[in-house]
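User: My collaborator sent over this chain with a note saying "see what the structure looks like." That's all I know about it. Can you take a look?
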Amino acid sequence: VARTDGSDWAWGRGTDGERGNGGRASSSTPVRLPSLSGIVDVVAADGLSAALRADGTVWVWGSGAFGVFGSTQDGSTIRATTPVQIPELQGIKALAIGRNGPSLFAVDATGRVFQWGTNSSGQAGAGVAGGTAEVRPVPQAIGALSGIGAVAAGDNTFLASSRSGTLFGWGANPQGALGVSALTTAGGPPLGVTPI
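Assistant: Without extra context I'll predict from the sequence alone. Here is the result:
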């Protein structure tokens, strides 16, 4: 939880280091993350935690599955018990995390959306999913999106709203979750959701 004073507090399971305090013990009592300040947002899923600082930098810790530590991750890194900065990202204004992977999304000051982590459900919005395209270890811009102000992520459905009010959806579309009539397959590009 990010507090208004910029501190981050965590409790619960710690086996993958997702509490970010350097250890892997679980705790029923909130414990302050000692190494980061100026935090404006925190997201967590699937044993991974991520924080957005007021300076626009993104930090991750916990499970290192699917390359979520960006270019700082080598093949032997399976977890980080303290925050690791994603050096490819600067000027970030919004952050989201999707389950079933996990997959991370960041929106920068210009409205570009970056994705990294798993691409099993087409999180990358690039026309491919699964197989050799399943892992994106370095944040990459989703080319079909621009002018975005916010992004939201679920298990396998992803949404972004533009600053002009247009809503886009991509990923899997079970039961019409994307708000589009076509039951798109995972991996397709973001589609406009109408009418909104």
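A starting point for your reply to your collaborator: The mean pLDDT is 82.
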